[in-house]
Write a structure and sequence with these properties.
heterodimer; A: 214 residues; B: 118 residues; mainly alpha; 3 helices; 69% helix; transport (chain B); quinone binding (chain B); NADH_UbQ/plastoQ_OxRdtase_su3 (chain B); transmembrane (chain B)
Chain lengths: 214, 118
């Protein structure tokens, strides 16, 4: 067994363990952290397949950004997980049936002669100086130009949707707008009132001095 | 090709050992004699009233998802930057259009006040 094969099996074992823990961990935050581990080991698999750009973007985008989002979502939800788990055995037959159907479909696809996974030899190893990212760049911006520009539109839709769904102006915050603060002039805040001089009446003065003594 | 990544594998393994080793060592070697008093929660001398975990404001979600979107945008810039000389003006125009669409969204969220932290 060659060394890359050993690494592959080690990574696969970690990946399967992490994947199982994602669905069995009691604490949802732990489940999210196991998902991070699963992403890391998948990045290792991408590296073994010599597609280093995908490996790095998996770590950067999924571990760096998507998992942060998942953790926020987990922390934002106020779900009683004990209550959610009550219906486990009631729903288990349905969930098991759906799962079995999915496994069956996967097996049928992978075992079919058209897939011919048994006779697949794998890609030829690349030269030491071959650049994966260069090949990707040549393809994305010429052959797959249309999907690439569509990706921009999808990102735009995502941005607008996120703003539309979660933008809330809070009424109770005391927010300071520095721009308004800077442009304010004396006349906006201070009003000088002209009034005739009034002689202070005696009882008030007495009361004030009594206040000071107290 | 794969040989180029052997140093990274070594790095990961050493990193794991340095991180996990001391914890494992402490767990194995250190004395462990818990009693109910030691394990009880300590919070300024009185029992905890409620769970310390509380709900986050939904605006963190907005910041996180906007971060993801621009993260993805940057990811597309890397392969483009590597082959820009080969692609020439056409490749430049392609990316200008890509950025223009996302800048539209950026202007929208700026005007909408999604970046304000009130």
């Amino acid at each position: 067994m060659s060394f890359p094969t050993v690494v592959f099996y080690v990574l696969s074992a970690i990946l399967i363990f992490a994947g199982l823990r994602v669905i069995t961990a009691k604490n949802p935050v732990h489940a999210a952290l196991y998902l991070v581990l699963a992403f890391f080991t998948s990045a290792g698999h991408w590296l073994l397949l010599e597609s280093e750009f995908l490996a790095i973007s998996l770590v950067l985008v999924y571990v760096g950004a998507v998992m942060v989002l998942f953790l926020f979502v987990v922390m934002m939800l106020d779900i009683n997980f004990e209550k959610l788990r009550e219906g486990f055995w009631k729903n288990a037959p349905l969930a098991g049936t759906v799962g079995l159907i999915m496994v069956g479909e996967m097996v049928l696809i992978l075992m079919s002669p058209e897939a011919s996974l048994g006779s697949y030899k794998g890609a030829a190893p690349l030269a030491a100086d071959a650049s994966n990212i260069r090949e990707l760049g040549r393809l994305i911006y010429t052959t797959y130009l249309w999907p690439f520009e569509l990706a921009a539109v999808v990102l735009l839709v995502g941005m607008v949707a996120a703003i539309a769904l979660t933008m809330r102006k809070r009424k109770d915050t005391k927010f300071v707008n520095p721009g308004d603060q800077v442009v304010v002039r004396r006349d906006d805040r201070v009003r000088l009132v002209k009034m005739a001089a009034v002689k202070r009446s005696e009882p008030v003065a007495e009361a004030e001095s009594a206040d000071q003594q107290a | 090709m794969l040989q180029n990544y052997f140093p990274i594998l070594l790095f990961v393994i050493v990193g794991l050992l340095v991180g996990v080793g001391p914890i494992l060592l402490g767990w194995l070697v250190a004395p462990n004699r818990p009693d109910p008093e030691k394990l009880s929660p300590y919070e300024c001398g009185f029992e905890a009233f409620e769970d310390a975990r509380m709900k986050f404001d939904v605006r963190y979600y907005l910041v996180a998802i906007l971060f993801i979107l621009f993260d993805l945008e940057i990811t597309f810039l890397f392969p483009w930057a590597v082959v820009l000389k080969e692609l020439g003006a056409f490749g430049f125009g392609v990316m200008v259009e890509f950025i223009a669409v996302l800048t539209l969204g950026f202007v929208y969220m700026w005007k909408k006040g999604a970046l304000e932290w009130e």
